[in-house]
Design goal:
The protein is of the alpha+beta class. It contains nine helices and 13 strands. The protein has three domains: 145 residues, no CATH class; 83 residues, Helix Hairpins, CATH 1.10.287.130; 153 residues, Heat Shock Protein 90 (2-Layer Sandwich). The chain is 49% helix and 17% strand. The strands form four sheets. It has a five-stranded mixed beta sheet. A four-stranded antiparallel beta sheet has the order 4-3-6-5. The radius of gyration is 51 Å and the shape is rod-shaped.
């Protein structure tokens, strides 16, 4: 069932209930009003008859057709009929319009009948009466006819309004949902090969416009992700092909002719170096290829980040620039955070290696640990050539290498900083970079501090 049909059915159902309730209420009010009018007319008529009877000490005097000539003269169906009986049930007087077939009794369903009894003393002198029973009635057929016509009118109007609402409502629903239909048709016609495709703008200035903008923003993000994935796949293939080609070339050269054992060992060493480089690339690619949910780490250990700095510095003790590496701790510890030591060490190593590659020997590389707004912050700052403004938004993208890095022939494949960002996210933190071209760069890693740690 289409949305238009469901909306129309719901609204028509509600309208049917409203019309039925309104018509029923109006019918009951009209019925009550008409019956009350009949009661009032009968009461007024009996009051008139009572006023026509003369109460005397020696009985009740009733003179037929003298005091009440105008009551009961009209023979219309809706007029009052009446008659008067004495205490023994004999008819004393009756209205001119009362027919012989009019069942003027209280148990007649087609009539509304009221009685009133007048009593005198026990010794009434004829022709006076000791008691009189005054009976008045009105036929209910005119009331029933009026109510029947009212019911038919209300039913006809309700059905007519319902049918009109059905036609207009379906047209309005189709017109209101036409932008959704156009967007659905455009979405079905989209292909992943054209990144410029977007949903048409409804121009309704309401929630549908918000939906169109949100969906188009999602399309933009998906196309960007798809483009990054394609670029990532192409770069990964290129980076894997390079060491494999070098390894195969070394093996092919070694197998062309017999060689002394020293040359074989030298060739195997070169193959081992290429294989180790290939392993590092594959591990980095596997880590970067994980979904965000899979990259979240379980079993994190609580550690003081300040205690990890000496271990990091010790690992770089054999590096030619180990004298340039400095550590600073600002403020009182402990600097507690939930970390995975191996990945945290890899993160530090990648930042330090990046700082060494992009700064000249003899310039300091500073590891500065501090606290900042509930986070443990580590700055890795160098005094190198900095990062150009157009390169800053891309430094954390896999395989991205700036033009300056390629011009200087710096080693690397562009995966180090991408791994830094992914590891930081996996630890629940973030990493940002600030750089002035020609004046060095500062990478800041922020990890959530544990509750209760000094701020």
């Amino acid at each position: 069932m289409s949305l238009t049909t469901r909306m129309s059915a719901f609204l028509l159902g509600v309208l049917a209930v409203v019309l039925a309730g309104f018509s029923t209420t109006l019918y009951l009010l009209a019925r009550t009003y008409l019956h009350r009018q009949v009661e009032e007319r009968l009461t007024t008529a009996l009051d008139t008859l009572v006023a026509a009877a003369e109460m005397e000490p020696d009985g009740i005097d009733w003179e037929p057709n003298v005091h009440h000539l105008t009551l009961g003269q009209d023979g219309a169906a809706d007029q009052v009929r009446w008659f008067v009986r004495d205490g023994e049930g004999r008819v004393v007087d009756r209205s001119a319009n009362l027919g012989a077939d009019d069942p003027l009794t209280e148990d007649s369903p087609a009539w509304r009948v009221l009685e009133r009894r007048l009593e005198s003393g026990p010794s009434a002198v004829p022709p006076k009466h000791g008691a009189l029973v005054l009976t008045g009635g009105v036929s209910l057929e005119p009331v029933r006819g009026t109510l029947l016509r009212l019911a038919a009118t209300l039913a006809g109007l309700s059905v007519g309004l319902w049918l009109l609402a059905a036609l207009v409502g379906r047209w309005v629903a189709r017109k209101a949902l036409a932008p959704v239909t156009r967007m659905a048709k455009a979405a079905r016609a989209m292909t992943p090969d054209d990144p410029r495709q977007r949903l048409p703008c409804p121009g309704t200035h309401d929630e549908l416009d918000d939906l169109q903008r949100a969906f188009n923003d999602l399309l933009c993000r998906l196309h960007e992700a798809l483009e990054r994935q394609r670029r990532f796949t192409g770069d990964a293939s290129h980076q894997l092909r390079t060491p494999l080609t070098a390894m195969l070339g070394q093996v092919e050269v070694a197998l062309r002719r017999g060689r002394p054992p020293e040359e074989y060992r030298e060739a195997l060493a070169r193959v081992q170096a290429q294989a180790d480089h290939l392993r590092q690339i594959v591990e980095a690619l596997l880590f970067l290829a994980r979904a965000d949910a899979e990259a979240r780490l379980d079993g994190l250990a609580v550690a003081d980040v300040a205690e990890a700095l000496p271990t990091v510095a010790a690992r770089w003790s054999g590096h030619p620039r180990t004298a340039d590496l400095r550590t600073e701790i600002i403020g009182d510890g402990p600097f507690l955070a939930q970390v995975q030591p191996l990945l945290l060490g890899q993160l530090f190593d990648n930042l330090i290696d990046n700082a060494f590659k992009h700064s000249a020997a003899g310039t300091p590389v500073v590891l500065r640990l501090r606290q900042e707004k509930g986070a443990v912050a580590l700055d890795v700052e160098d005094g190198g050539h900095g990062i150009a403004g157009e390169d800053l938004p891309h430094v954390f993208e896999p395989f991205y290498r700036s033009a300056e890095s390629r011009r200087l022939g710096l080693p690397g494949v562009g995966l180090g900083l991408a791994m830094v960002q992914r590891i930081a996210a996996a630890l629940g933190g973030s990493v940002v970079v600030k750089s002035n071209e020609g004046a060095g760069s500062r990478f800041t890693l922020c990890l959530p501090a544990l509750a209760g740690q000094p701020r």
